[in-house]
Write a structure and sequence with these properties.
By secondary structure, the chain is α+β, with helices and mostly antiparallel strands. It is built from three helices and 18 strands. Strands 1, 2, 5, 6, 8, 13, 14, 15 and 18 form a nine-stranded antiparallel beta sheet that branches. Strands 9-10-11-12-16 form a five-stranded antiparallel beta sheet, with no helix packed on it. It has a four-stranded antiparallel beta sheet with strand order 3-4-7-17, with no helix packed on it.
Amino acid sequence: MNKTIGSIMMILLSVSELALAQIPGTQTGLPSAHNSQECKSPDRAAWMPKANNVKALWHMDGTAGTIANGASIASGFSGGPAAAATISGNTLSYATSTIANFRQAITATGATATDTISLTNSATDVSAGTWSFWVKMAIPSSGQQRLFYKSDNNSGAGYLAAIYSDGTLEFVKVKSSSNMKLQTCKLNSTYFANTWRHIVITWDGTTTYTADNVTNQTGVKMYIDGVELTNPGAADTTRFTGTCSNTGNYGGYAYAQPGSGTAGADTGLPLFLMGINASYTSPTATAFTGSMDEFMIWNVALSAAEVAAVYKHQKCN
């Protein structure tokens, strides 16, 4: 009799453990089919698309308050490259992030442009790549504001991304004669400004073309919150504003050009996530102003589905 009761209790415990394992938020590792909306840590972990191709990751976590000159911005995984802060005006600081599952973010006032976060490391030398990061910022009041920058002062090598005062988001692959670039239609400031947005830019490594750029042959795609920033025209008034008449010519983007000349090697060039170094002022821009978090670099271009997965699990939705 006692053996029978013991067997029943063991069965009940096994059933209970199985049920618990199926409750969202109790698992680790890859999400199961029934638990595809599970909140995931923004780490280079098993769930991360092409995790082995993640070359750099900065969680941008630290004790709330001003970031000191020379402070290390730790890598998000063992063996990854750390960045460093160069500070003269005390305009960069850590603050608690309002995104669930994140910890802190770095906030920049932009008041001292030479306050930078940068590194020189081969992990950022990519012949194809994906750049993923979160920002909370306003559309600039004038000119353009850098999101990231790695170039030989716009002479013939490197890459950069910026947002313009009209709401255009741009990625540039620097070439010796004219740059390869892609520009989105104008972002709606009500949609974008001062709201945490997940930006992803992918580049498949293509730098040479034999045809025109009618269908966005730059090999670049840009996304916000897991959705590509292509505009079907007047239909999408939530993300975009104003007219964007060229979308039919550039695969849903406002403008694309393959560029000309050679794309030099990125080796040895520093990457700047915030700020503008006095030796790297071209093209003219202002320093990033706002908050940034969870900056990641892959050495491959993620697919649209993979970009959506990164957004879904980092945002916990």
